[in-house]
Amino acid sequence: MRDAEFLIEAMTGQLRALLTRRRIVEPALVGIHTGGVWVAERLRARLDIATPLGRLDISFYRDDFSRIGVNPQVRPSELPFDVDGRHLVLIDDVLYTGRTVRAALNELFDYGRPASVLLAALVDRGGRELPIEANVVGAHLTLSSDQHVQLTGPDPLQLLIQTATP
């Protein structure tokens, strides 16, 4: 698998080009805890964005919350900027079913109505259950249903592919 930092560098070029095409000058980046925040921190530095980084913990917004229970590592979300009328880039480490992104969008709209939301993902592994697609992707992976991809970090960032044991 490619190095996570290499993929983030590729995402930086894609995102810079997309923002230029859309004439978005100063977007706000919002990372989804935990891996999405790590990726967002690196993208923010590479793109030289002055706006502080937003962080979302979508634990209470998940549609499977009642099934998975309370996550002992729930963190408060932090959006140190006004969401209303703002161009946002939502960033996650792994895009799979789309349910995490849906939950993140629900939470973002609880804070206000952004002008636009772009989606960036370090890895898109397919398997969508909802009609959600990333605008910027570091890598597309095809994995079997018993495989999972995980980003570990924050220093160094490493992508791991794990196979579930029966």
Task: Explain how this protein is built.
By secondary structure, this protein is of the alpha/beta class. The chain has one domain (4-163): Rossmann fold. The protein is built from four helices and seven strands. It has helices at residues 4-21, 35-47, 65-68, 99-111, and strands at residues 28-32, 54-56, 87-95, 116-124, 136-140, 147-152, 158-163. The strands form two sheets. It has a five-stranded parallel beta sheet with strand order 2-1-3-4-5. A two-stranded antiparallel sheet has the order 6-7. Helix 2 (35-47) links the parallel strand 1 and strand 2 (54-56). Helix 1 (4-21) packs across helix 2. The longest helix has 18 residues, at 4-21. The protein is globular, with a radius of gyration of 15 Å. 33% of the residues are buried.
Strand content bin: 25-35%
Number of strands: 7
Number of domains: 1
CATH T-level topology: Rossmann fold
Calculate Rg over CA atoms: 15 Å
Task: Report, as a whole number of angstroms, the end-to-end distance.
Answer: 24 Å
Protein structure class = alpha/beta
Summarize the structure.
The protein has 166 residues and is an alpha/beta fold. 29% of the residues lie in helices and 26% in strands.
Short key terms for the protein model shown above:
single chain; 166 residues; alpha/beta; Rossmann fold; five-stranded parallel β-sheet; two-stranded antiparallel ribbon; 4 helices; 7 strands; 29% helix; 26% strand; globular
Write the layout of secondary structure elements.
Blueprint: H1 4-21, E1 28-32, H2 35-47, E2 54-56, H3 65-68, E3 87-95, H4 99-111, E4 116-124, E5 136-140, E6 147-152, E7 158-163
Helix pairs in contact: 1-2
